Amino acid sequence: MKIVMIAGSNRQGATSTLLLRYIGRLLQGHQISATCIELNELELPLYSPDNEELSPNVQYVLDIVKGADGLIFATPEYHGSISGVLKNALDYMNVSHISGKPVLSVSSAGGPVGVSSLTHLQSIMRNLHGVNSPEWISIGAGSQGFDAEGVPLDAGLRERVDAAVEKFLVLTRSLSVGVMSLR
Ligand SMILES: Cc1cc2nc3c(=O)[nH]c(=O)nc-3n(C[C@H](O)[C@H](O)[C@H](O)COP(=O)(O)O)c2cc1C
Asked: What pLDDT digit, counting tens, does each position of 155-164 carry?
């Protein structure tokens, strides 16, 4: 099972990226290969429908997303929505990259929860024919601390992340076997 994760913050030390890295380690614990693309490091040019030639970084992202069995996207909550860099990356994608794939959405907000960005992300995934995982993960004020090993300090958050990842994996396994024809 191949999982691809995209960290949608353009900020060093972003809490959404730290959470995604932690999820990556949980997946490793399940012996699942997970690739994490951090958009802060892998710069993508601004999407334009006029550009027919894709940059090598864009092609890399599209190829790796296309080959994934499941996808996890993380975003900071910006003005009640997802970040510009994540939206830019998603604008390059179409149903051929996402259709039939389970998607787990993760956000970090300045307020207690970041439901708007999660709702927007799920809506984009629905438009690309992705299959939204039943749970999503939101961190916000009071749950954004990580220890030196990158483990969330909030025990309740760790439990919620475990449960959300577990459901995402059940969905990913089911879809890998059952509904390949959706892709
Ligand atoms: C441009 C901008 C817009 C933001 N808009 C919101 C918002 O609408 N709601 C909110 O709760 N926090 C908002 N914040 C705060 C961020 O969501 C918060 O700092 C979050 O932890 C950023 O995630 P990161 O640590 O992954 O970068 C905003 C921050 C910035 C820079």
From this structure: 999 999 999 9
